[in-house]
Amino acid sequence: MGYFPDDYSGSSHDLMSLKLSTTNFFINLPSLIDRFHSLKELDVGSCNISEGPIPLSLGNLRDLIYLDLSQNKFNGQIPAATWGNLTQLTHLLLSSNYFHGSVPQTLFNLMNLQTLYLDRNNLSGTIELQKFLNLQKLTSLYLSHNNLELLAESRFLNNATIVLPKFEYLGLGGCNIREFPDFLRSQEALLQLDLSRNKLQGHVPKWIWNTSTKTLQYINISHNFLSGFEKSPAVLPWVELQLLDLSFNMFQELLLLPSPSLQYYNIANNKLRGQVSPMICTLTSLRYIDFSNNKLIGDLPQCGGDFSVNLEYLKLGNNSFHGNLPQS
Hints:
Layout: E1 2-3, E2 17-19, E3 25-26, H1 29-35, E4 41-43, E5 66-68, E6 75-76, E7 91-93, E8 98-101, E9 115-117, E10 122-128, H2 129-133, E11 140-142, E12 147-151, E13 169-171, E14 192-194, E15 201-204, E16 218-220, E17 225-229, E18 243-245, E19 264-266, E20 273-274, E21 288-290, E22 295-298, H3 305-308, E23 313-315, E24 320-321
Parallel strand pairs: 1-3, 2-4, 4-5, 5-7, 6-8, 7-9, 8-10, 9-11, 10-12, 11-13, 13-14, 14-16, 15-17, 16-18, 18-19, 19-21, 20-22, 21-23, 22-24
């Protein structure tokens, strides 16, 4: 614990990278900006920077490529004027602060952005998803846990001439999205997709089964109003899938889950009927299963010992199972 030294002996003109994340320094950010004005990387994430706005002088760091201000106590609005000079930025991390107000339009002029984290703030307002899709180098976008209304309807995304980003990480939870974003049809490299806590309703579209089939590891569409699948595949197509969260919807059918890599499966708080398929016994990597609060019936599958080797969490309550508890 202490203050970052003001008597730094090096030349402020030479320092290009300053990484202080998760340190215990008390950091005076305006002072750092004034002293190290040639910075290309500035990482002060998780530094307990006290409440206050982002200093406008941050815009003087014209060579900045990487900026991490996440997990601090910044508040106020994200200043629009700051970003006009930061045209070289590729990574901008502002998550887990207390920012409020709208997403500044000047962020959409940062055409070199690859990573944009705005999640876990108090941002509000209505914004078209298309504005983010115009950032064609973007691979990671996190907007979850704000008060945004993201207009993701297909009428904004039906221009076939647009070159879309190739996303790897998409966090769009709690963005008041009303239908599955159409641009997901063309995504082939997604690793994580979070559409939880939105206003999705009706059926999961059949084209979702062709999305990132070789790469997708995490999909969360929990806490929506989904009632079924437009067309259920005989087997799930995502060969690398590790987490599938469908909980808190209105699903009535239980998906087959042949992916041996699956570790987390949550379909609690739906309207599932019928019996659990013995197919689940093939999922020997499962660590977490939650089928609770449904209308499932019948005997539980008599899985072999391999099934229970990795299992850490099993929740089956509030169903209508009967028969003997499997020995495994």
